């Protein structure tokens, strides 16, 4: 079976590696254009492009696939590359471009998507983050036959994974990438034998995983400790948590919710020592375990407190309510 692969980040690279290891013929890879990254802001190839080049696979990086869009020449060149690849199926994983109908119709077996949620829950851009933020007990991977809608196609395979009380987006990403890689190999092997099932998504239970915005990092201490712990885990590694302490912004990366029945104002530091920085919330308290000053490194609470005092009674705030 000849497979065109479309993907960009590390999540997709894992799937591409698994397809190649399983012996599938991948004549063409589509991935996002190189982006500036790092301190020098030099152009950097995506993980999928790096993998493709290592294996000698042709790479196309169109700015758009819309033949009537802003970049028709890019789309036309990509169309020719897809036709020349003469593939049976396209596999898509976190590609980052919308596939128009002509792309969906081109491969005889259509386009299969590796989606990191239990569809129809968490359609959209950030399913791993939103599942953790919402406190879901489980998530998983859905192999979906793509249609023109936003993650609305028929479901082919589904497998579930638990979300533990310590899982972050980073840890779940790695688990789900590995699961997705295994499942897409299984799906293509079933498709080769003509036995890949298709089940329409139910109309009930649809939720949307909207893109993560950097502004969401601000910690609102008027929420419960459990909610804030989930947000920190959901936003690790991006964008992390943030709080204002006087004129300084402190980044937050890891915490543990604890019981607290006092009446301190939410955001008040209750204690700060080698065990962590305990902060009152609307319900309970959050023990901050890993913190970071602007321009500094992530540090354990013990190391952070050696260079930054947070005595009991200090008030941590949102930026618009910070003390002048």
Can you describe what's shown?
- The relative contact order is 0.10.
- This protein has helices spanning 10-21, 47-54, 72-85, 101-105, 127-133, 169-192, 225-234, 301-307, and strands spanning 2-7, 25-30, 35-37, 42-44, 58-60, 89-93, 111-115, 123-124, 138-145, 154-162, 208-209, 241-245, 248-258, 269-273, 276-280, 285-293, 299-300.
- The protein is an alpha/beta fold.
- It has eight helices and 17 strands.
- It starts with a strand and ends in a 17-residue tail after the last helix.
Descriptive terms for the model:
single chain; 324 residues; alpha/beta; 7-stranded mixed beta sheet; 6-stranded antiparallel beta sheet; elongated
Mean pLDDT score, rounded? Answer: 96
β-sheet strand percentage: 25-35%
Q: How many beta-strand runs?
A: 17
Radius of gyration: 23 Å
The secondary-structure class comes to alpha/beta
Report, as a whole number of angstroms, the end-to-end distance. Answer: 65 Å
Unreliable parts: none
The succession of helices and strands, N to C, reads EHEEEHEHEHEEHEEHEHEEEEEEH
Main sheet: strand order: 5-2-1-6-7-9-10
Helix coverage percent: 25-40%
What spatial form do the alpha-carbon principal axes imply? Answer: elongated
Oligomeric form of this entry? single chain
Instruction: Please give the count of helices.
Output: 8
Q: What profile does the largest beta sheet have?
A: 7 strands, mixed
